[in-house]
Amino acid sequence: MTPESLTVPRRVVTGHDANGVSVVLSDGLVPVHRFMPQDGVGFYEVWQTAGAPAPIVADEGDPTLDSIRVPPPVRGTKVRVNEFFPGHLTPEGRQSPVHRTQSVDYGIVLEGEIVLMLDDSEVTLQAGDVVIQRGTDHAWANRTDKVCRVAFILIDGEFAPELLGVLPDDVHAALMTEGPHDEPGAHEAGA
């Protein structure tokens, strides 16, 4: 697959004019997307918020333009669509690196089929299925011959003390804090 094969989603952003009237601020293709040929995955950064409650202003700049990071901002959210192309499995049968984020992620399979790989099991998800990913080590694999599209809504989280008591001692140091193949610290904090 090539970047030309990507199916970039349409994004409609609403807001308010100077009189408080509801308006469409933008309507077009998601402007931030990246194809990772080593994994056969397309990333489409749809929107993100920083802070909770999320500030709602009349018109704001595009919050996705900084960088592509896997986790959401601190106390924030992130919406992305990923396309997993067939034919990109590692010898271990994975398509993504094994990773963990300190977040609650809702994954909605829009099209195709994807395998969620956990420490002790695998779950096959199909179009219409929803997975709630709660800070676990995991990886993804498209083992079919068709593209799989998944919408992810990520919400910043924090491991509870009782869970930290059973997780590896280096769990915080091992969290994915940047992009899938970025070195830690490759982006400015909060980007």
TrEMBL record:
Per the record, the coiled-coil ranges are none
PANTHER family tied to this protein: CUPIN TYPE-2 DOMAIN-CONTAINING PROTEIN, SLR2101 PROTEIN
Report the residue ranges that make up the Cupin type-2 domain in this protein: 90-153
Q: Name one Pfam family in it.
A: Cupin_2
The name under which this protein is listed is: Cupin domain-containing protein
